[in-house]
Amino acid sequence: MKLSSILLASALSFSSASVFAYDVPNFAHVNTTGYGEVIATPDMATFSVKVVDTTMTAEQAKQSVDKTVETFLNSLADAGLSKENITSSNLYLAPQYHYPKSGKSELVGYRASRSIDVTVKDLANLNQYLDMALKAGINQVDNIQLKVSNQEEYQQKARMAAIKDAQSKAASLATGFDKKLGDVWQINYNQMNARPVLLRSMAMDAKQSSNSYQDSTLVIRDQVDVVYKLK
């Protein structure tokens, strides 16, 4: 192999930001990383809520939390939400102690909590379900995530954009070094997971507007690492 070809292969190998986990080929080549992204408008959501209460006895704490959860679940059922879109956790109950500077710890009550995860297939109903949670006595929202129902369709578009980006970069680099682009020698691909839009994480002590999701967008990204031979 000519020294010029070895130097060219080395120079082009460093043109990409990606590091490939393979033995460096003994022929002139170029490494490229293609990036692609598409913008999607969310059409569904998931949210997690929790009810927490502390009372003097374990039974009172349990009854209070269970009542709130039952009220919320009944409201969702009356609104037509299917049970398969609702997940309710078991009761968590723990004693609460006061620790004075001197003396023994003192039992001051019991803290009970339960969580509920809800999948909203129609985004137009999100506000309604959140209002139901507030009216039922739910006192904490852990998070609200906006998603798209046809995730794979958008992922495929982002993947094709990444492939085209890799091809374009490789062709440009080859031309810049007075070479022609050859066949693909290796493809490394690890699908990037879309990050749902996180709207808020708050205690529901004071009602806040949840209309911010209406103008939200979801960016779905993908990337591919490709090694091309050079002619």
From TrEMBL:
It holds the Pfam family SIMPL. Residues 1-21 form the signal peptide. Keywords: Signal. Gene3D superfamilies: Protein of unknown function (DUF541), domain 1 (3.30.110.170), Protein of unknown function (DUF541), domain 2 (3.30.70.2970). It comes from the Bacteria. PANTHER family: PERIPLASMIC IMMUNOGENIC PROTEIN (PTHR34387:SF1), SLR1258 PROTEIN (PTHR34387). This is Oxidative stress defense protein.
